[in-house]
Amino acid sequence: MDACCLHNRDAGRFFGWLATCYRKRFARKGLEPSQKQLMNGLASSAFSDATLLEIGCGTGYLHQRLLQAGAASAIGVDLSAKMLGEARAQAREQGLSERTDYWEGDFVQLADRLQPADIVILDKVICCYPDADSLVQHSARMARRSYAFTIPRDRWSVRCAFLVGRAFLALIRCRFRSYVHDPTAIDGWLQQLGLERVFEGNTFAWLTCVYARRPPA
What pTM, to 2 d.p., does this model score? Predict the structure, then answer.
């Protein structure tokens, strides 16, 4: 098994341990501040009646909230079967089962089997993938209208926190790692694919951006 497969397997297990906690946290507190910024950014580009593709969807509460606010349908992709189990259960509770579809696995490997969507979302996902270039390139090509993501801010305090997290993961012999990728590089990849930034928001630790596809010349 190669390093990427080992990373993805352990990432799925790691987040599987947290699945129930994530769902309970959302039930108590709702969206995180960075997720509220992401929704505001998408609202400025209009998501009414849009199809959604959320990569690394976790327990599904972000795209399900967008469905409740007017989006048409959503596909969620995640490495963790337990996360997707929570997402399906929550979709049933919210009456959204017929408007949602869930796929387990590495999005980069699944991309050829998925349909493009009006809006593609990666909320705190690029930082969980070692090959950011491949993930961004594959996912951005799936976005017909908008592309939204949240990544860690590139600042010393955030890097220190990530280093502590990586040390903990090494201690428990988990091969999953998180990364602080260069936002300038991500912007360059998206510009090359015909997307331009239309929204940016910050919290202490997170940078949220929304890009819109440029109309053909």
Answer: 0.87
